[in-house]
Specification:
The protein is α/β, with parallel strands linked by helices. It has a single domain, classed as P-loop containing nucleotide triphosphate hydrolases (Rossmann fold). The chain contains 9 helices and 5 strands. The longest helix is centred in the middle third of the chain and has 23 residues. The radius of gyration is 17 Å and the shape is globular.
Length: about 220
């Protein structure tokens, strides 16, 4: 069992790449919608608001926000422990460092190219797409930095950093598949800890495994 985490910029093709990886490798694809379902079933109805908004100074110390983030981390740990997943976003690259069976991947592309892709995909004009991506990038950076305490731009936290201006989406899929296959065969030098060794609440794990079984 293994895990691939994908950190991606909006318009970089990360969602497409993640889904194709899951299909090609026979893994389950876990994104914000899947995690949101778990969160809401456990009473964290504010998950979308917490993730999709940039907190002001006082909100960073808000108890409800803190408890939501804490449970999100627990849910992600349960997903990783269940294994055989491609996990999109939510800072998984930072949460699962130095595991023998976790591959952390960053998908990115130049800002102007990402804007162009969104203009084509959503039929937007440039004056709409530009601020949309700027806002989305800011929110993601804030969530990763302020709420989780990681630097999403730190290349040392990733096993692979792929620029989809250089590689096509499908070429990126092939490169990640090759890296994941090699990791599963060889593991990491000097690291024996696996995602399966994570300590997780048994009831939460059982619930997550049941949900993943339907994917």
């Amino acid at each position: 069992m293994g895990v691939i985490t994908i950190s991606r910029q909006m318009g970089s093709g990360g969602s497409y790449i993640g889904k194709k990886l899951a299909e090609g490798l026979g893994l389950r694809y876990v994104d914000k919608q899947c995690l949101g379902t778990i969160m809401r079933e456990y009473g964290f109805s504010s998950f979308d608001e917490v993730y999709n908004t940039k907190p002001n100074f006082w909100e960073r110390f808000d108890l409800e926000r803190a408890s939501t983030i804490d449970f999100l981390i627990q849910a992600m740990r349960a997903v990783a422990k269940a294994g055989d997943v491609v996990m999109l976003g939510r800072g998984g690259f930072g949460l699962f460092q130095n595991f023998a069976d976790v591959l952390n991947v960053r998908i990115q592309a130049p800002f102007d190219l990402r804007v162009q892709r969104k203009m084509v995909e959503r039929g937007m004009k440039k004056d709409v797409a530009d601020p949309l991506l700027e806002k989305f990038d800011q929110i993601r950076r804030s969530f990763i930095h302020s709420d989780l305490g990681f630097d999403g731009n730190d290349a040392s936290l990733y096993d692979l950093v792929i620029n989809t201006d250089v590689l096509s989406f499908d070429e990126a899929v092939s490169s990640i598949k090759a890296a994941y296959t090699a990791l599963m065969q060889n593991k990491r030098y000097g690291i024996s800890r696996s995602a399966g060794s994570l300590e997780v609440d048994p009831l939460l794990l059982k619930h997550v495994e049941k949900m993943l079984g339907t994917l």
